[in-house]
What does this fold into?
Amino acid sequence: MFIVSVSAVNYRHEQKNLPKRYQARAIAASVGDVRVLNLYVPNGKAIGDFNITPADLDVHDPDAWRDKILCSAPERQALADILALGYRDAYRNLHPDTVQYSWWDYRMGGLRRNIGMRIDLTLCSDNLALHDAGIDTEPRHWERPSDHAPAWVAIKP
It folds into this structure.
């Protein structure tokens, strides 16, 4: 997690040296009144990293993926239920019609052919003043990258 701010970070916490079986990491920071928490929890013991396409706009070929994992109606409804708690998809809120993906399969040149999906979401509370949000595709072009590109948000002071 990177925090870029004109204000100093007034709090930072990172879990380190956890036994491998926990497979979870948490990093938190505060900048002014904004608290940021980044969780990596592949063992499923906390919510986060949903890997859900919110809408057909977020899928290269929606018909081919209809009702399959990442794009199913139950997954999308579960995400809608979370958003109904007072959260919003930062990227889609600011870019309602833009097609941008955050994940491309390594097979069949997914990145090169831009055959991907937007499954990496940044959810924020309704009262957070968003300045911008995006997906940084540059790291995806590095040698031995993740198949995901980082999603980011910029918050107004």
The chain has two domains: 8-44, 50-155.
